[in-house]
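<instruction>
Derive structure tokens from the sequence
<data>
Labelled lines for chain and fold:
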Amino acid sequence: MQNKTMRPVYWLFGLPFDAVTRDDALRSIALAIRERQRLFLSTPNLNFLIASQRKRAFQDSVLHSDLSIADGMPIVWLARLLGAPVPQRVAGSDLFEALMAGAAGPVKVYFFGGEPGVGERAAARLAALGGPVQCVGQHCPGFGTVEEMSSPERIAEINASGADFVVVALGAAKGQAWIEHNRAQLEAPVISHLGAVINFVAGSVSRAPAWMQRTGLEWLWRIKEEPKLLRRYADDGYALLRLLAGHALPAALAARKRGSGAVVPSTLEVGSGGHLNITLRGVLTPAQRGALMSRLAEALPTSTAVDVLIPSGTRVDASLLGALFVMRSEAERHGISLRVEADEAARRAFQLHLASVLLEQPALPDGPTLVPAAL
């Protein structure tokens, strides 16, 4: 079983991103299929990032993912601006093409969503290719609510197909919501909303040339192929300018003004009754983060609660916030309360990075509603 506390996550303006390559992501998919472990894969692009700032449920769906990859060059550019080592764009379409080329061995896929007739054409093409990816079922639910698309009969039919990978194509918000609503009942190890993949496989939409994908100009090609996307890209472009002016550039300038900062060891202490006390100090270097998260992995299974202290002078950046996100997620997974104490300067930095959600206590089974942790 993979050690989730060691996820190389970095926080970028409201969402976590795993600093992984395409090959890393493919290995995670192959491992999940081979060992029948759940992998909820999210592929946030700029549209995801903007939407998550407006819709908490949408943001939560990405926060609950097991792997969150940067599916867009604007995400990679924002990461570089903040010094987060996100190595490359990892498009969901690239992953699926690699699966079709045999990167993970035989894969049984179920397509849920898409325009009427597209699922049938995608299934027929995969059958004609005779490659390692086999379509074992598809369904176009048409219009309706998430609940209407989630009948017990439909979930049972998907499970009966024996799919390794459920590919959802309902539009980003509804697709993520459908996965959130049904992932506990779905038996396929890999689940992801890959909206354009079904169209690419069916041949109803062609992919942009590689040079346009590399340079961040794929959106122009997508508009040519699907003119209805023009409004979405225009809205996202305007929102990106506001994000740069109000958050990204000020955060980058603040980091440069602070310089490298003092390297002061962060600590993890186990108190009485299995109470963990974590203090994040100075700059959280990669080596410190690795050591801290390794100790956390050892201590969490026997812990009862976690307190995280962020004192004055601590550098709040994409790395620290990513580590805190992992701590929070793992505490929630173990059913343990986690409380964050941060001074006013740190809280302002959280707001600048759109990370105030990380100051909230994780929701526990039969526990209280999320509320900001008090100092």
Notes: The radius of gyration is 21 Å. The longest strand covers residues 107-113. Residues 267-359 form a domain with the Transcription Regulator spoIIAA fold (CATH 3.30.750.24). Residues 366-375 have pLDDT under 50 and may be disordered.
